[in-house]
Design goal:
6 helices, 138 residues, alpha/beta
Length: 138
């Protein structure tokens, strides 16, 4: 399966790719996904990945700095602004997303992503007819 459409990837998928976990199948699937798509992410996702790698994998500040540089060198990173925050608020009202999930979805929409890979949101949900949420583990 190769999907070179505009793809946004949520924090949990990045973490499965980076961390050695008890969930080996999910880790393998996440790594495969990154070979199949050209992902984008948001500043929020960068922040969440970094804080989790500090907590769960004991990453040093040097490792975090290298990771941040790598994200910005390899992938489009969507910056937060007023319009995205207001769109997130509207999405919370329309879809009952959590605060953090609504910001991920708003960033994906702002980046014209067609697919949002996430384990945390409703698999198959179409957001405004423009973005489909897919859980890559089902």
């Amino acid at each position: 399966m190769s999907d070179k459409s505009a793809v946004f990837i949520d924090t949990n998928i990045w973490l499965y790719a980076f961390l050695d976990t008890d969930e080996e199948e999910k880790s393998q699937r996440a790594k495969e996904l990154f070979q199949q798509v050209d992902p984008m992410l948001s500043v929020q996702v960068v922040n969440e990945v970094c804080v989790n790698l500090i907590k769960k994998a004991d990453f040093s500040e040097e490792q975090i700095a290298r990771l941040i540089q790598s994200f910005y060198e390899k992938y489009p990173v969507v910056e937060m602004d007023e319009s995205i925050l207001l769109a997130a608020s509207q999405l919370r009202q329309e879809y009952s997303f959590s605060f953090w999930d609504s910001m991920v979805v708003a960033c994906a929409l702002a980046a014209n992503a067609e697919i949002l890979y996430s384990e945390d949101m409703q698999n198959g949900l179409s957001v405004r007819g423009a973005l489909k949420i897919i859980n890559p583990f089902v």
